[in-house]
From TrEMBL:
SUPFAM superfamilies given in the database record: Flavoproteins
Organism (species): Megasphaera massiliensis
Domain of life: Bacteria
Key words, A-Z: Flavoprotein, FMN
Protein name (Swiss-Prot/TrEMBL): Flavodoxin family protein
Upper lineage: Bacteria, Bacillati, Bacillota, Negativicutes, Veillonellales
One Pfam family named in its UniProt record: FMN_red
Gene3D superfamilies for the chain: 3.40.50.360
InterPro entries, per the entry: Flavoprotein-like_sf, FMN_Rdtase-like_dom, ISF_SsuE-like
Domain NADPH-dependent FMN reductase-like: 4-115
Length: 180
């Protein structure tokens, strides 16, 4: 069955290692025949949620009129959502956390996504490096109980743009994309 796959690159560096990892996932999903869209957040204006809860009725943010709204509505209508984030201080990027907060408007909305994936890259190579980012995403998923975390890929030892080249995690991400 053909699925709508949305990949969100949350790195502030457009050509960063997490976006390269995301493109490997996209390559696999496209090879499997799925419709794939990649949205990089680099250069986008995304304001903070102010917790006013006005979005619960309107299903859209009533305060911020910025670039987050398009991404949030695409999350709502995707079958599969993939987040790609660099690990900063053993946690997801601030851009990713801010976007997740802005999905408050989906809390009472009908949403299509069921499968969620997380792709991470970091300078550190310890296997537990992404555990807090994974925990944060699992916390977000508690609100969306029809969806679940289906897989993660972590590429350590990646600091400068492009240092992920040749890492086996690129093949792992591509294979995961083919299995969506």
């Amino acid at each position: 069955m053909k699925k709508k796959v949305l990949i969100i690159g949350t790195s502030p560096r457009l050509h960063g290692n997490t976006n390269i990892l995301a493109k490997s996932f996209a390559k696999g999903a496209e090879a499997a025949g799925h419709d794939v869209e990649f949205i990089p957040l680099a250069g986008k204006r995304i304001g903070f949620c102010v917790g006013c809860w006005g979005c619960l009725e309107s299903k859209t943010c009533v305060v911020n009129h910025d670039d987050a709204e398009e991404a949030v509505q695409k999350i709502r209508t995707a079958d599969v959502v993939v987040f790609a984030t660099p690990i900063y201080y053993y946690e997801m990027s601030g851009q990713m956390k801010t976007l997740l907060d802005r999905t408050n408007c989906l809390y009472k909305a009908d949403y299509d996504f069921r499968d969620v994936y997380l792709l991470t890259a970091a300078e550190d190579t310890a296997p537990d490096t992404p555990e807090h980012a994974i925990g944060g995403l699992k916390g977000w998923l508690k609100v969306f109980n029809q969806a679940s975390l289906k897989g993660t890929v972590f590429a350590g030892g990646t600091m400068e743009d492009g240092t992920i080249a040749g890492h086996p995690e690129l093949e792992e991400a591509e294979a995961m994309g083919r299995k969506v």
